[in-house]
Amino acid sequence: MSPDTILVAIAWPYANAPIHVGNLTGSHLPGDIVARYHRLKGDRVLMVSGTDSHGTPVTLRADAEGKPVEEVYQIFHNQFLDLFQKAGISYDLFTTTHTANHFKVSQSIFLALKENGYLYTETRPQWYSPAARKFLPDRYVEGTCYLCGFEGARSDQCDQCGNVLEPEKLLNPRSKADGSVPELRDTEHFFLDLSKLEPAVTDFLRARQSYMREPVLGESLGKIESEGLKPRPITRDLDWGIPVPVEGWEGKRLYVWFEAVIGYLSAAIEWSHIVDQPNAWRDWWTSPDGKALYFIGKDNIFFHLTMWPAELMGAGEQFMRIFAEDEGKLNLPYDVPANQFMNLEGRKISGSRNWAVWGLDFLTRYDPDSLRYYLTVNMPEMRDTDWDWAEFVARNNNELVATWGNLANRVLSFAYRNWDGQIPTPNELRPADRELLATIEKGVASVGEHLSAVRLRAALGEAMRLASEVNKYLNTASPWFEIKTDKSAAGTTIYTALKAIDTLKVLFAPFLPFSCEQLHHFLGYSTPLFGEQYTEAQTDALGAHNVLRYNPAPATGKWQPSQLQPGTQLNLPAPLFKKLEASIAEIERGRLGS
Ligand SMILES: [Zn+2]
Q: Cα of 486 to ligand 1 centre, how many Å?
């Protein structure tokens, strides 16, 4: 089978808050698991994302802290890089939207849409602050919701009733920056004519009906059927962001929702330049073989299943002409396996109320694979789930430690102690040995099938079920007693168990990369399972930005059954996971909301 060419495109986090476990399980972790699996399978993977640096949440935060916007976005951006490295989220490139490359790509998409007749201009009233002498972005204006009467509504959205609002209808408006009362003034903006693109977007969605997650597709099609697609403004009056590439439009910027999604494309292009293969991105983006998977939370479904395909289809072949003076059409998303939300101890995660488990903080006390395990078994694939600290401890101890970690450690230590640190040479395998190995090896196909279809909970559940098969086998064969009467029979049992563990290591590897890498070393391999993550600085006309990279070169892991040979020298084993005290649940709950 020839390798697939897979773009793993992961939601761009806003640069105004740290990342919590809900964000990780929503997009970054599932994307990473899928990327690691396809790399092991030998597919060509490009996994990209970056910091969404231009949203008004960032400028609001900068205003509140009295800092330059560049400084604020970089603080969060650098924290993201740190977290992804510590959690093993193996981006080929994690960059930012504040790069000269992203500016050029976004402006080219804009111009392509304009030349293809999908943009028009319209003058509309917008809130203007006479005190600050500037137009106020929607999020800068708060007031009373005209639908439900909630007094703390943002002008573009009400958090009480959940509706998207028409900003100029807001009642009792006030500026969030200084509390002054704004007035409505006329301003001209570009609009993306989504109504013209509605038939194309509907066809795009229907063509994916046989395999896309039902809640994801249902939401998108349902919205189009009930409301239709209406034109949306794609420019705004703001200083921070990407300039509108049209004469006379200085002082206006591209709307962040319009340009941030373009990051999937621009990041692939930036990666190509960094690795010095300027056209490599086209394998993922313009070759018909390129397959793009988008990992996002449900709050982003509309932007990724409606807006983004509309931008891509509207830009058509014109983008390549403008951007590269070349031919070609950009690939549409193949699948968008969006996740629902993870709540925390029965309540919605809220960063501002500190009702959150923060990724970096968590990793100061616990191991990344414990986090990845719990976030995967509890991933909100089809419905919302809940992070529960007592459950985190229980599943860590009863499943990760008891079923898998102890199995690996017990067998490795026993082999190491009794066979001079080597893998024992077996006698002819008995029916029970062969049966176990056949069962485990079938997992290469069954776990792989779940992973290919992005059913990650099912995939990990299947791997864990296979680990308990090895435990059952050992309970029956009992090599710890067998060795006292027949050492060579015990050697056959341990050889069989080590082969099974070596195969399971590959099946668990996309989920638990740190401990599987360690286990791989204990099993005597001298080259690593995975490549290496690192950060570096990139410089362009806008200044310097740090990026996270992944070097796949040292990786030798393969999605296949164990090839382990008798006589191989093992390395001194140690436990893969830590058992956690039940008392930490109460301690951790005590940190919430304070
Ligand atoms: Zn409301």
A: 75
Q: 93 C-alpha to center of ligand 1: Å? A: 39
Sequential pLDDT tens for the chain (594 residues): 688 999 999 999 999 899 999 999 999 999 999 999 999 999 999 999 999 999 788 888 898 899 999 999 999 999 999 999 999 999 999 999 999 999 999 999 999 999 999 999 999 899 999 998 889 988 889 999 999 999 999 998 898 998 889 999 999 999 988 899 999 999 999 999 999 999 999 999 999 999 999 989 998 999 999 999 999 999 999 889 999 999 999 989 999 999 999 999 999 999 999 999 999 999 999 999 999 999 999 999 999 999 999 999 999 999 999 999 999 999 999 999 999 999 999 999 998 889 999 999 999 999 999 999 999 999 999 999 999 999 999 999 999 999 999 999 999 999 999 999 999 999 999 999 999 999 999 999 999 999 999 999 999 999 999 999 999 999 999 999 999 999 999 999 999 999 999 999 999 999 999 999 999 999 999 999 999 999 999 999 999 999 999 999 999 999 999 999 999 999 999 999 999 999 999 999 999 997
Q: How far is the CA of 154 from the centre of ligand 1 (A)?
A: 9
Is residue 9 within 8 Å of residue 24, measured between CB atoms? no
- The whole-angstrom separation of Cα 30 and Cα 265 is 20
For the CA atoms of 347, 350, 354, 358, the dihedral, rounded to the nearest 10 degrees, stands at 100
Residue type for 18, please?
A: P
Look at strands 290-295 and 5-10 and give their pairing. parallel
Q: What residues have CB less than 8 Å from 312, skipping those under 6 apart?
A: 330, 331, 332
Residue 148 Cα, ligand 1 centroid: separation in angstroms? Answer: 4
How many A from CA of 298 to the centre of ligand 1? 20
**Residue in 358, 242, 261, 311 with CA at minimum distance from that of residue 12:** 261
Distance in Å, CA 150 to ligand 1 centroid: 5
Interatomic CA distance for residues 592 and 594, integer angstroms: 6
Q: Concatenated DSSP letters for 532-584?
A: EEEEEEEEETTEEEEEEEEE-TT----SSS----TTPBPPPP--SS----TTH
Angle at 305 between CA 299 and CA 310, to 5 degrees: 130
For residue 127, the CA-to-ligand 1 centroid distance in Å is 19
Measure the CA–CA gap between 374 and 394, rounded to whole angstroms.
10
Q: By C-alpha distance, which of 342, 424, 351, 431 is closest to 388?
A: 342
Q: Is the dihedral of CA 53, 56, 62, 68 positive or negative?
A: positive
Distance 141 CA to ligand 1 centre (A): 14
**CA 138 to ligand 1 centroid distance, Å:** 15
